[in-house]
Design a protein that fits this description.
Helix content: 25-40%
Radius of gyration: 19 Å
Low-confidence stretches: 1-14, 249-256
Distance between the termini: 25 Å
Shape: globular
Structural class: alpha/beta
CATH class: Alpha Beta
Number of strands: 6
Largest sheet: 6 strands, parallel
Length: 256
């Protein structure tokens, strides 16, 4: 995808139509991971709001759509779309899924093995020290093939209260029970699926199931990157797609 800025007939920079974006992190993540994204959309004049599930020190928070603030876009990583309220998800006019899925546990033998692994992770959340070690292993796997040191600080680096661990455990059970796209998922809006070619969390069969469930989606596979999308040019890839497919550029002075 090209990331060059479009211009009008006079060669002046074109102005992107306004968007409002609600971003949702995945399991064991937190809203602070979206800080580079928020900074990147600032020059475009878009409204960016990051939802927070509350796994760590930050309190749970869920933004809402605002009237008159531009087209409504969801950007969600991994389990993110499954953590959004169905009415909010249904109100989206475009969706970007980053290393995400509909059904997480694939059918068959591989699925049974993964279900057992999720149950083991849930059991480790009963104890804070064991929970921290489990999260550290999970994050290292999510980072591969990049070093885990590139990950932004998150819940695993802070206190894991009983409430934090209870929420993580609840969402693990939700994860194991996913059987397809979440309730409220808008089926007839522009959709970008960004896959991590070396994803160690979302299985290839699961990625194929998502593509099959969304045959009209645009799909980008980023080579050499893992589930956390640490070293890939994911931000310019997504912003380029949004400007081309959701907020077509307008010449300065044009009426939206």
């Amino acid at each position: 995808m090209s990331t060059e800025m479009s211009t009008d007939a006079a060669g002046r920079p074109a102005q992107a139509a306004p968007l409002q974006v609600i971003a949702m992190h995945g399991w064991a993540g937190e809203a602070s991971q979206w800080a580079p994204w928020n900074e990147a959309v600032g020059p475009l004049g878009w409204r960016w709001c990051s939802a927070e599930r509350g796994y760590g020190s930050a309190a749970a928070a869920m933004p809402a759509w605002e009237t008159g603030r531009g087209r409504r876009v969801i950007v969600a990583h991994s389990m993110g779309p499954h953590l959004l309220p169905p009415p909010l998800l249904a109100g989206a006019e475009a969706v970007v899924l980053l290393a995400s899925f509909g059904r997480f546990v694939p059918p068959g033998r591989q699925g049974r093995s993964l279900e057992a692994a999720l149950a083991g992770m849930a059991a480790e959340l009963e104890d804070e020290a064991r929970a921290r070690r489990m999260l550290e292993r999970f994050l290292a796997l999510a980072a591969e093939p990049d070093p885990v040191e590139l990950m932004r600080p998150g819940p695993a680096q802070g206190p894991l209260s009983p409430d934090n661990r209870r929420r993580l455990r609840h969402d693990l059970h939700l994860l194991a029970g996913t059987r397809g796209l979440p309730q409220g998922f808008p089926s007839h809006v522009p959709l970008l699926i960004v896959e991590a070619a070396d994803d160690r969390i979302v299985a290839p069969d699961v990625r194929a199931l998502l593509r099959a469930a969304c045959p009209a989606a645009d799909v980008v596979t980023l080579p050499g990157t893992g589930h956390a999308l640490l070293s890939a040019p994911v931000i310019p890839t997504v912003l380029d797609w949004l400007q081309a497919s959701v907020a077509p550029a307008m010449a300065p002075g044009a009426i939206a």
